[in-house]
Amino acid sequence: NADGFVISYEDTIDGFLAKENMLLTDSYKVGDIIKACLISITSLGKYFKLFVSRTCDNMLISLFYDEIPEVTDGVVRIKSIARIPGIRSKIAVETLTQTVDPIGACLGIKSIRLQSIIDELGGEYIDVVLWSNDVVKFIINVFFPLPLMSLVLDDTRKEVDLVVKKENLSQIIGKNGQNIKLSSILVG
To answer: Which residue(s) pair with 126 in the sheet?
Structure first.
C-alpha cells in the first residue's frame, strides 16, 4: 500500500515495512526477499505483526555481522556508527589482536565484503575507520587520508577545532555537510 509493504513469513507472522523505514532506493515486488531489522512486535492473539526497518543503525551493523566473519567471530569489533540511511555511513572498528587488520577484514579482497553491504543498502557509501581510545588519534583516523593542519580539543565543551588546507575544506565538510556531520556523530 502507499504507507509501506506487508511482509509475510510462513502463515502466522506478518511484518510491515513502513515507507519511512525504507531506503530511497528500495522497491519491491511480490516474492522478493527483504533484509530488514526488527524494531517492534505486536501480538494479535495467536498471530504476530512484526515492524521492520532498513534505515536503523542496526541494519548496517547486522550486515557487517552477516558479511564479515571476523566481526561475527568477535575478532573485529564495531565501536561506533554514524549513518544517513541510503546515502552515507561511517563505522569505527577495532581488533584486540595484532594479526588482523580490522579495516582490511571489513573491506575484504578487492573490497568485495564491503561492496556486498553497499549493494544491499542501495549504494550507500560506507567509510570504515580505525577506532582509537585516544580521541585526538581517533579524529585523525576519521578524516584520513585528508591531512589536518591542527586539531584543538576542548573536552569540557565537547568541541574540536580543526584547521585544514583550503583545498581540503570541501572534502572535510562533504556534500551537504554529510562528512562533518557523520564524523561528529562518530566521534561523539
So the answer is: 89
